[in-house]
Amino acid sequence: MRVLVVGGTGFLGHHVVARLRERGHRPSLLARSPRPGTDLVLGDAQRLTEDEWAELLTGHQGVVFAAGADDRTVPRRPAEPYFHQANVEPVRRMLAAARRVGVEHAVLHGSYFTALHRLRPELCLAEHHPYVRSRLAQAAEARLAAGPELPVAVLEIPFVFGSAPGRRPLWAPAAPWLGSRLPLLAPPGGTAVVTARSVAELTVAALEQGLGTDLPVADANLTWDQLLTAFATAAGRSGPVRVHRLAPGLLGAALRAAGLTHRLRGLEGGLDPRQLAPLLCSRLFLEPGSHGDLPAALRETVAASRR
Q1: Residues of the chain predicted below pLDDT 50
Q2: For residue 256, what pLDDT is reported?
Q3: Residue 80 falls within a domain, yes or no?
Q4: What pLDDT shows up at residue 239?
């Protein structure tokens, strides 16, 4: 199967391309910047018209969208149009074009916040956070554009660990702290986690099986103190690892201060800092469905952070 991977030089895109090749498929890559030793088409997914997408997708049987803006992005106020332009519009145009030229399978890399939106309605995620609204709209608009003849699988992805060439991990700024003797602090609650390898395997499996459903993905559920302990161990912290409890009130005050700073600068985050403390103090867990080597992925993340 010939598959176009949008964001194919990114962190997850790199692993998807490798897995496609392992399975005997022929990946094509679309990215905004060149990468040495990589055969790709240069282009900005946010700027491509439907006709340009159709030209790119002609001759492909599958497409993977591993691009867009994530929840760490803090654009100018209001954030809603920014996330819509980054996460919804490119996918709508891409899948309308894919349907036109006969693409048979599609996978989107989404966020586990959309799964939590279904599973934990009391968190009011769509009400509070423009990023979450963009991911919900992305899935809805994608399936509307694709129509019934083009199944669209949406992988709902939590925190991902692992490494990719030339990519600095999300956790890189914390690596020195985690490996030092400084105190470790964590709030109550926790998160689902997954390895990049597992995401890639599930992406290719969804393509091969022609799945068209929402697919929450997780290798494990960890409390924040369990995650920091595992990370500190991978970072080489000597002696027993002890994590101290961070009071929810203190966390909330710090996040509200960050939100005030954003507002004073004319910015707005994809996740509203005023609503983050209750979220981070919750157990944001999913049903594990894959079996990635999380300790190895954590060691990779630490090693990549130090390069």
Answers
A1: none
A2: 95
A3: yes
A4: 80
**Dihedral of the alpha carbons of 258, 169, 156, 118, in degrees to the nearest 10:** -20
Q: Look at residue 201 in the predicted model and tell me its pLDDT.
A: 98
Pairing verdict, β 190-195 and 220-223: antiparallel
Q: How far, in Å, are 138, 150, 163, 217, 249 from residue 144 at the CA level?
A: 10, 10, 34, 23, 42
Burial readout 54-76 (b: 16 or more C-beta within 10 A, e: otherwise)? bebbeebbbbbbbbbbebeebbe
Give the tens place of pLDDT for each residue, 229-265. 999 999 888 888 899 999 999 999 999 999 999 999 9
Considering the domain boundaries, does residue 7 fall inside one? Answer: yes
Predicted confidence (pLDDT) per residue in 205-227, tens digit: 999 999 999 999 999 999 999 99
For residues 25 and 49, the answer to whether their CB atoms sit within 8 Å is no
Give the Cα separation of 21 and 31 in Å (integer): 18
Other beta carbons less than 10 A from residue 213's beta carbon? 9
CA distances from 166 to 35, 55, 237, 301 (A): 9, 29, 25, 12
> Does some domain include residue 6?
yes
| Inside any domain, residue 278 | no
Domain of 207, CATH number, reads 3.40.50.720
CA angle 227, 229, 231 (to 5 degrees): 70
CA dihedral 192, 196, 202, 205 (to 10 degrees): 180
Domains contained in the chain, number: 1
Which pLDDT score is estimated for 36? 58
What values do phi and psi take at 156, rounded to 5? -100, 100
CA–chain centroid gap for 93, Å, is: 21
Contact 127, 298 (CB under 8 A): no
Q: Name the amino acid, one letter, at 231.
A: F
